[in-house]
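During the reporting period the student researcher (J.K.) took over the structure-prediction task from the postdoctoral fellow and processed the backlog of single-chain submissions. One of the processed entries is reproduced below for the supervisory committee.
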Amino acid sequence: MFAGSYEQHLRHVEKDVLIPKIMREKARERCSEQVQDFTKCCKESGVLMVVKCRKENSALKECLTSYYNDPAFYEECKMEYLKEREEFRKTGIPAKKRIQKLPTSM
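J.K. obtained the following structure tokens:
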């Protein structure tokens, strides 16, 4: 009778740790160009990267922050997390292991 609300209920650790982790991973994927530019600059600049890579660092931070502050992006990541959690509750297999096992069964 309360299954729907129970399924949507998030524990503190889910809201504050697990969903933000998904957000960070997805944002890094979506900001891959800025990540690559910053990484390249750091490799080329060595010890001086703090001074030399300010522009690349700012662009990366701006890109990531735009996703972190987007309520629709949070909802997208929350739904992805809830889907993974539901699948785990059904199968007992974490998402990473399910993904790893797929190619061997084909």
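The committee noted the following: Helices lie at 3-8, 12-30, 32-45, 49-52, 54-68, 71-91, 95-105.
J.K. will present the remaining backlog at the next meeting.
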